[in-house]
Amino acid sequence: MSVRKKKYNPMKTIQTQASYGLKNLAVFFSQAKGESCDIVNTKSFNNIQITQSITTAITGLRHNWSITMLALGRRQDGQEYFKAENVSFNVPMFQSELSDALQDMHKEFINRSMNKLHLCNICWFACPRGTDFDENHLGEMLTKLDAWDNESEWELQCQ
Asked: Which CATH class is domain 10-158?
């Protein structure tokens, strides 16, 4: 006689609901805006009000995170550009576990890919559903979120 499998698993139901609730959402950090992060809709580029349910869904459950690390620069001719690198984690992780690894990886990325004189901002997008962005989409989001507001090192030296 076969053993009957349990049909209802409350944790699996919560995980599914949280995943659905976080669809098209990403955590956005910009060094120019300070220490806090924003929740951003990746389709409309609007900031989302952080509620208790969103906070619990992001911090209280494990997700297969996909991180897009960004270094924004401005050349002496005024042209803005950014360098991006995607990092995906195949193992579900809590947001708190992610922040420690992200800090070291982002510093290494900036040191090897960006001219220090051009650097005007450091940003990242963290998607709990494992979404990667193309360069055009990233450029639109960065402009909409005012990520280019800081001055680069060479602009500060000219003042």
From this structure: alpha beta
